[in-house]
Each structure stands twice: as C-alpha cells, then as structure tokens.
Backbone:
C-alpha cells in the first residue's frame, strides 16, 4: 500500500480560517482519519460542525438497521463532543447505497448554505486508498457530491427554493479530503493525538461489531499518524488532499 508518493513531504494546511464543515458518509469516518486534527482546530478556537450523510445503520452485521441507527448516532454525537464539535447533522441517506446525484447535492448544499464554512472537509473519494485497496462506494459518491454542492451553494439559481431567509454561500475556499492517497498537505496532530484516539474509541459498538480481532484504536491511529508525521518532521500528523475552489489555482 505504500507507494513512493507517500514519502513526499507534506505542506502545512493553511491556518487562516474560522469555520469548517465536515461532510462524510458514515459515523466513524472522521475518527478513522481526521478527529485529532479537528481536536486541534477546536482547541485553537475554530468552529467545526459535522454532517453525516447516512447514520451508518447498515454497519453492524448483528444489529438491525433501526436499532443500529440509534446506537451509531449516539456514538457519533459523543465522539464529536470529545473533539470539541457540538453540532452533528444526520441527513438520513441510506447507508451502503448512497448515490451520487442531484438529491445528494441538494441536501449537502443546504447544509453548506446554513453553516457558511470557509473550508469543507470530506473523506478520501479517490478510487483507492493507495495501491490496490479499493475505496467504498458511499465515500466516493459523497466526496464527489461535496465538491459539486460547495459550488452549488454559491449559485443563487441552483436550488433556489432553499433561499428563504438563507443566502447563497460562495465563501468556501477549498475542500480538503483526509486519507487520500494523493494527499499533498498535512497538519501536526501531536498534541491532540489522544483526543483523536478517544474519539475513535467512542464508536465502541461499531468497533465491537466489526469483529476485527485485537483491533486497538490507539495502535491503528499511531501507525498512520506516525507515517504521516514523518512527512512533516513531527511525531504525528494527519494528511489531506486539497482541492482549491478559486479559478486558476
Ligand atoms: Zn465510511
């Protein structure tokens, strides 16, 4: 899974922003790649909100979706609080079969217009995680829709029915995708690594339901964090691929 690209140095992410909105397919997505970075940002006084496209209700084999939805939403809310995030929206798209399309763009666009973020964060939506390890369909659908919905949000003629007491929002400067095999930027998470671990551990029912023997959240996050840290010359870092939204960038 390690290509030569992975050893390229990472440029530090810009720090001159105030509000971020994180839009991901499933509860637990943030915690497998970006929660420690979120903990750092909220600690610095930035506002970060979460939006889950599905509730991960198809994520536990031994649990029926309605029960699972309640369990996973509760775990996500706790997990978010542990990294300083008080707002978690659930859009209610069906876990496992999220489709890229206008309904998904419309729903994400509405959240962007209301939250008015400078930065929108999503998970890796490239075809693989690097090497041959294939990405999952929901992640790809959501990431593509995020990029498009961010543009939709700035155009008053797209989804105009949303613009009652809400303005178009052309203010998103970039979309950042964590965990991308083409990551070119990073953030030092050394001082907030433990908060990231606690945030992943909050998904206890999910982790238990995966049935991965001897899965240890700290060990798992340490592996990626350390490898990414080496690309920035720090103990632990998180990597992001940056998609600028201005023209000609
Ligand atoms: Zn996921």
Residues:
């Amino acid at each position: 899974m390690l290509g030569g690209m992975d050893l390229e140095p990472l440029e530090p992410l810009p720090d001159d922003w105030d509000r971020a909105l994180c839009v991901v397919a499933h509860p637990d997505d943030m915690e497998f790649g970006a929660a420690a970075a979120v903990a750092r940002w909220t600690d610095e006084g930035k506002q970060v909100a979460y939006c889950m496209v599905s509730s991960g209700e198809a994520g536990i084999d031994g649990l029926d979706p309605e029960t699972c939805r309640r369990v996973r939403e509760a775990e996500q809310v706790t997990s978010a609080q542990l990294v300083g995030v008080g707002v978690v929206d659930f859009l209610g798209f069906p876990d496992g079969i999220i489709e890229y399309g206008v309904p998904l763009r419309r729903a994400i666009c509405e959240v962007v217009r209301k939250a008015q973020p400078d930065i929108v964060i999503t998970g890796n939506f490239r075809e693989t995680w690097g090497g041959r390890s294939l990405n999952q369909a929901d992640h790809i659908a959501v990431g593509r829709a995020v990029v498009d919905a961010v543009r939709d949000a700035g155009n008053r003629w797209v989804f105009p029915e949303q613009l009652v007491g809400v303005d178009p929002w052309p203010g998103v400067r970039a979309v950042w995708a964590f965990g991308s095999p083409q990551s070119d930027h990073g953030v030092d998470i050394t001082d907030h690594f433990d908060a990231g671990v606690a945030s992943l551990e909050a998904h206890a029912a999910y982790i238990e339901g995966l049935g991965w023997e001897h899965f240890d959240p700290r060990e798992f996050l340490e592996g990626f964090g350390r490898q990414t840290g080496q690309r920035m010359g720090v103990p632990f870092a998180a990597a992001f691929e940056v998609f600028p939204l201005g023209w000609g960038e």
Observations:
- Residues 25-26, 29, 139 surround zinc ion (CB under 6 Å).
- The chain is about 35% helix and 15% strand.
- The first strand starts at residue 11 and ends at 12.
